Amino acid sequence: MSNRSYLCVSTYPSIYPAFAKSDYDPKLNTVAADVNCVPLLWLAMFRAADLRTETFEVTEGRHTEKVVATAPVAPVERALTQLDAAVPVLERLFGEPLAAYAALLGAGVRAGEGDHVTIELEEIAVLEGDEEGYYDKLRLALASLDGSGDATADRDRLADLAQLGPARPFPPARLLLDDMDATDDDYWNHCRLIGASHLRPVPWETESAGRPGRA
């Protein structure tokens, strides 16, 4: 079973544009990916009101089945505004600077081919073994990004969704760009904060970056 999440930008105001439109091109529209989690800064672009549930018909060979999926989707400009608003909340929760990560992620999203951004995360929800519970946790996590909840519970929930390791401090956002010395835990957390390249370059990596923790 696959275990990836994907950050997607497209012209379609839909979740899972790869399902919704046959001309979706992952080389143009899939910004980044990760394994076994949804990176923290991806989550920060959305709020609970952005979650949608849609039904798609997926055809493989002669077989067509209906797939019900839930994910967040928002116009790019709103998503990036929400990302900026979430940064001080996350910095208070985790006690770490994240503005440089947000700037690099914003550049990656803006470079995508489209005006709506979403996360394909069904593979991660299935891994949990309790999809309904996963989406409940996701909804609470997105709602917490206004900073009005219980700080410890909010931090732990977000860290669990992003699969952040216990290593502190967080590595610099330019870890890969500047080829900094780092531990495996640093590489792990860097990817859990922002994700990794998939089929196209991302602004927070170099073309030759090949580090532990990458998707």
Structure description:
- This protein is of the alpha+beta class.
- The chain has one domain.
- It is 40% helix and 19% strand.
- It has 9 helices and 5 strands, in the order E-H-H-E-H-E-E-H-H-E-H-H-H-H.
- The protein has a 5-stranded antiparallel β-sheet.
- A hairpin with a 2-residue loop joins strand 3 and strand 4.
- Helix 4 runs antiparallel to helix 5 and helix 7 crosses helix 8 (151-162).
- It is globular.
- Residues 208-214 have low confidence and may be disordered.
The SS-based structural class is alpha+beta
Strand order of the largest sheet: 2-1-5-4-3
Mean pLDDT across every amino acid position: 90
Quick one: biggest sheet?
5 strands, antiparallel
Low-confidence stretches: 208-214
- Cα end-to-end separation: 15 Å
Question: How much beta, percentage-wise?
Answer: 15-25%
Number of helices: 9
Using the CA coordinates, give the radius of gyration.
16 Å
Number of strands: 5
**Shape label:** globular
Percent range for helical residues? Answer: 25-40%
Outline the fold blueprint.
Blueprint (H helix, E strand, L loop, with lengths): L3 E7 L6 H4 L5 H4 E6 L4 H4 L7 E10 L2 E13 H19 L4 H12 L5 E5 L1 H6 L3 H13 L7 H12 L21 H11 L21
Antiparallel strand pairs: 1-2, 1-5, 3-4, 4-5
Helix pairs in contact: 4-5, 7-8
